[in-house]
Write the structure tokens for this entry.
Amino acid sequence: MRYRKSVLSAAIVTCLSFSAHAQDAGQQATELDTVVVTGIRASLKQALDSKRDSDAIVDVVTAEDVGKFPATNVAEAITIIPGVTIDKAFGQGEKVSILGTDPALNRTLLNGQTIASADWFISDQPGRTFNYSLLAPQLVSKVEVYKSPEAWLEEGSIGGTVNVSTRKPLDLGGTTISGAVGYLYNDRVEAGDPSVSAMFGWKNDADNFGVIVSAQRSIENIRRDGIESYGTVSGKDYINGKGGSPNSITTTTTDWSTDPATTMPPSCVGTCATTLLANPNAVAPNAISAHYFEQERKRDTLSVALQFKPTDKLDIEFNALNVKAKYDNMTHSMFAFNGNPWNSLGGLTDVTVDGGVMTKASFRNALTVYDLLNRQATVDTDSYDLKFTWKDERWFASAHAGISEASGGTGKQVFGEFLNKADYSYDISGKTPSLNFHGYQTDPVTDVTTHMKPGHAGSPFTDPSAYRFDGGGPAGGWHTNPPSATNWGAGWGGNIVTKPTKDEERYFQVDGGVTLDSPIYQVRFGLKRREHETSQSMAGVSLASIKGYGDLTADQFSPKDVPNSYLSGFGNVGDLSNRFMIDGWALADYINSGKWLAPWQTMPTPSTFSDPSYAANTWTVKEDINAAYIQADFSHDRLRGNFGVRLVQTESESTGYTCSSLKSPCPADGYVLSTVKKKYNNVLPNLNVAYDLNDSVVLRGSAAKVISRPNYGDMSSYLWIGDQTLTGGGGNPNLDPYESTNLDLSAEWYFAENAILAGTAFYKKVDNYILVTTQKETHYNQSQQTDTEYDISRPNNAGGAKIQGFSAAFQTSLDNGLGLLANYTYADAKADAGNRLPFNSKNQVNFSPFYESERWSARVTYSWRSKYYTQADRGNFLVTDDYDSLDANINVKLTDNLTLGLDGMNLLDSEYRSYAEVPGVANTEKVIRGLYRTGRRYMATLRFAF
């Protein structure tokens, strides 16, 4: 075995791969693990050979066959790598965590450069995470995950950097035509969708000019069934009320049907009152919701790659990528709102407390709600990249410039809210929450008091006529006169909202280097300028409905039953699974038409300043980054590696609206733009070392200073508030960047041919760690039309944190075609103050046996990750429970040009479960915040290549 690189070999490596730096993932010094889609046995041998010459810690997934990748989503394809986990809130991997870190602490690059990204979900704030559902796998040549940094690699990652490389025209063997036709079926949707992709590659006979053009269209319908709540309430809220609301211990009502009128007792008396007063700190979900989400995802992708080598020393590359995606979606949430301050906290009639949780409770004439949110959402991305590379026998240089733009968000949301009051009880003592009804009303909620008997037996969830828009109530004191412009206060029946986002980055960099005749065989250096801008705007109007005019019932909008399979696999859910839903487009047409207006009302015009929350969600963050680096690569006897330093200067501006008026709510002309500026410098040294202990053992070590900047949304002045739940969240323009010292040690034992046992230990000491905390703030309540106290969650620099752990990986292939890849990762992440860090699973396991012959190949992959904290939301710490998944695929080679594949994804129909972690509450896992299933997915694909 050769331990030392010669100067000539180093120069060859430099000429062939340095010019792309990150695009080729560098240089001989940066390849480590390779998990390949097809040709598994041969690829494993190639991967193990490359490990022996590697310096940094890098894992790779490659697509050996043109146009093939092992999943419908790039994020799902890299989960086999040790320490890589994904979050599947909507059934597909959209956020990637590396070595126990928050996805926001990892970078995703396309050919070594930032790719602009936008989110489709209206609740998401723009961040630094990449939406992997956008990237068509057919584009990808390989995906590299850098777990240890090098000076030349763009900064910004604490966990790791994911670099997605596309194909280069001159790497093709000749004229290439390939593609695939597929059909994806989801057993929960009970329908399927087609996909098609094609690629044409050509290069001239002189092998100095080539082009690749590829196009892909995919359609996928998603359905997510679930049970939700939207926060927590405590025993104190039922004892005392909240924000001046009624309570269940002392609030009485008046029965005007008797003569004289009768004062009715509070709802919670006897055993109920005794139990409640003895448990004021007991917690309960504030709602039990039957959640039904449906979405059609359409993605059209077009890419062009040009490569021209006019001389042996000059290489010119141009890459263009256009992605147009539609994510239109509807959410139908029908729920018992037992935590509503004004309509439910005074209706508790019975309660059971177990382990600090109100596991069972009953209510009389408490609020139930049907929310329909119809959203039009798009995500469009355009990236253009131009690179010149020059090299001779000793010197090399490159210049790189480009722009990446993305637009997305919600083009329009039409939100309709229907109200009802009913008698009901919930039970969260078991694994799955259940809700049962004991009668309901059909009168407007403002006409129903707690002591009234049910007007109808059964469940309102099956009666569309029982739900109506809030028609408001008398103004200036109670009266029974018909509503008019002067005597009636409008209700809140929903809103029409737009919330588009934009993301853009422009960059220019120059790199150079020289090879030397010494143990330091190569020195490289470079400069880079990045200019980034992310913005979000929000505008809208509220549906100010009036009784007798705009308070229509839900049966006016083509109601129908949910599918028979709704909530299948959840267990006993009571009346939650038996419900209706309405036509979201009919509702949108009605609201947009203005037919809900009373004669004295006019159709409002959407405005940023019509609601304080709209102005607070309109902001821009600009960030300019200058960087310089120098790196030396060395090799002496059995020792090799690199060391260097990266110098970075960051300037940021966060601009948003603030109110200059003392009036509440802020008048439209009272808003002024306010800007917060920050500037900071970082010196980031790093060292990577590899030592060949003998012919079968390689030892590695890495030490580095790294940074990660706050999410753009966290740096903004945004604010959202829930007028009914009295909770909210916002940004913090004064955040400092994360700073970390990273240490990594690894050992690889090649115990047999095509086999390895490897272990890696990692330690990250993070300063300025950003955690979301909840505090009391006063804001204007649009529903109550008065200033109200809210629990607002905002990010803050919370001091230091440590992330430490280890991973173990095993892979082998046997002579009979069988093989195995398996790995385990342990990661312990905590803030110095004891807080848990987001998206850190302590334990993660991947197990992937495979079989391959000349004609057949098959693989089964099982993944499991332990529970992990995600965020602070509405006064709660949210935890996602253990999650496992099982995928499988089989491929058969029909001819030399045709391959038929069958993939099964989410074969366990895995349950995505999140709950509120409340300190000091033993039974906190019972406080469910979300319980979801998205269905099994089966995909048949016919691939061709000529």
